[in-house]
Design a protein that fits this description.
four-stranded mixed β-sheet; single chain; alpha+beta; Glutaredoxin
Length: 117
């Protein structure tokens, strides 16, 4: 199973997810959203899999810094806004075959990788 973890290296939640995957012995590829960027196609796939509410991080500093017009634009069509501001993406995003999940939950990761022993 190919596993990819998308996030930002300075994000504490992404660090916890990476530590968990490393400790569980999961082979994964790391993509830094800020350093590597993200394609609109990937964002569209995430939007289809997760929905807008699970994709946009409304607790982020970027969101708080937006004015009302920018927030409305992001809610109308989040893909171009997320492509320009990857810090707005709720993270980490974990892609496995066939699931895509946003955020980190140890229980959720355990169920995905069946590491409970």
């Amino acid at each position: 199973m190919m596993t990819t973890l998308y996030g930002i290296k300075t994000c504490d939640t992404c660090r916890r997810a990476r530590r968990w995957l490393d400790a569980a012995g999961v082979d994964y590829r790391w993509i830094d959203l800020r350093a590597d960027g993200i394609t609109r196609e990937r964002l569209e796939a995430w939007r289809a899999a997760l929905g807008d509410a699970a994709l946009i991080n409304k607790r982020s500093k970027t969101w708080r810094d937006f004015d009302a017009a920018a927030r409305a634009a992001a809610e109308r069509d989040p893909v171009p806004v997320l492509a320009e501001h990857p810090t707005l993406i709720k993270r980490p995003i974990l892609e496995t075959d066939p699931e895509t999940v946003a955020g980190f939950s140890e229980a959720r990761y355990q169920s995905l990788f069946d590491t409970a022993s």
